Amino acid sequence: MKLQPKRSFASDNNAGVHPRILQAMERANRGHVVAYGDDPYTATAIGKFRELLGKETSVYFVFSGTGANVLGLKAVTEPYQAIICADTAHINVDECGAPERFTGCKLLTVPTTDGKLRPEEVKPLLHGIGVEHHVQPRVISISQSTEMGTVYRPDEIGALANFAHRNNLLLHVDGARIANAAVSLKASLSEITRDAGVDVLSFGGAKNGMMYGEAVVFFNPALAPDFKFTRKQGSHLASKMRFISAQFEALLTNDLWKKNARHANRMAQILARELSKIPSIKITQKVEANGVFAIVPRRHIAELQKEYFFYVWNEATSEVRLMTSFDTTKEDIQKFIALVNKTLR
């Protein structure tokens, strides 16, 4: 059976792999190297991270975003503690309870309209600090960009980090789309992480052109001196780690991470602009990264999904999520808009 590739707006996970990433993996496929990360590809990739994020950072490669989040959080928490996050956070909604199971921590969620946390919203959750009957808040976890497609500015991250540190908490960033956020803000990766006071970062690769692979970054290595054991117990120590490392080496060379994210963001802006011209469609969130959220008449959604896969984000309001990626084209958008216009007529 011949496969008929079809573009979708469901997720940047649905996109292919950037050719330069595939080439890097092919080059890494020559000969033998020592397994489990003791190889030149891993050393070079970690060096690239330190050039961007600071020479004192500790960097560990894992297979998936959920793995990066879970293991990064486990490394800095105890089971009697709590992790504070937005109610829309990936760790709360889309990780099948893995953070709770593997950290033992309770997730304390904050309702938000735009996916972003603010210190004044977090403060009421700290009332039980020191009380033995209550879980003890230890980490504030934010997503950058958020699950609503919005982006934290450096000063907003800094405010959360300062608040966290004043209260003996840490700040974790789920950076599955950290590249899209940096490009949107015209900021360096360091400006929105280390310089802003972030303690632990899950750095995304798969959503920005890689085949698979994420990184757990500790800006203070003293936070997780034994993380290599945590990673092994968590089943994320890759034997053939060079194939993750080679991807990151390529992604972080000559600003490929930035070019991929910039293109995805630009496609989202075009998609939002074209959708906003259709009277019966309403854009519901600021389009700051590569996600577009819109209310589409309920009766037309199933018909559109026959041709283009995308997710209904909120069944109650008929809000859908449309994601663009490094390989989304203007032609993809034009064809989709043509179908929307035809269907909604």
Could you list some keywords that capture this structure?
Aspartate Aminotransferase, domain 2, alpha/beta, 2 domains, globular, seven-stranded mixed sheet, Aspartate Aminotransferase, domain 1, four-stranded antiparallel sheet, 345 residues
Low-confidence residue ranges: none
What level of helicity do the residues show? 25-40%
The CATH topology of the largest domain comes to Aspartate Aminotransferase, domain 2
Provide the β-strand percentage band: 15-25%
Class of the largest domain, according to the CATH hierarchy?
Answer: Alpha Beta
Q: Provide the number of structural domains.
A: 2
Strand order, sheet with most strands: 1-7-6-5-4-2-3
Whole-number average pLDDT?
A: 96
- Number of contiguous helices: 13
Biggest β-sheet, characterized?
A: 7 strands, mixed
Order of helices and strands: HHEHEHHEHEHEHEEHHHEEHEEH
Shape: globular
Fourth-level CATH superfamily of the largest domain: Type I PLP-dependent aspartate aminotransferase-like (Major domain)
**What gap, in angstroms, lies between the N and C termini?**
35 Å
Number of strands: 11
Structural class: alpha/beta
Strand and helix layout:
Elements: H1 19-28, H2 40-53, E1 58-62, H3 65-74, E2 81-86, H4 90-93, H5 98-103, E3 106-110, H6 119-122, E4 136-143, H7 154-166, E5 170-175, H8 178-185, E6 200-204, E7 214-218, H9 227-233, H10 242-251, H11 256-276, E8 282-283, E9 291-295, H12 298-305, E10 311-314, E11 319-323, H13 330-344
Helix pairs in contact: 1-10, 2-10, 8-11
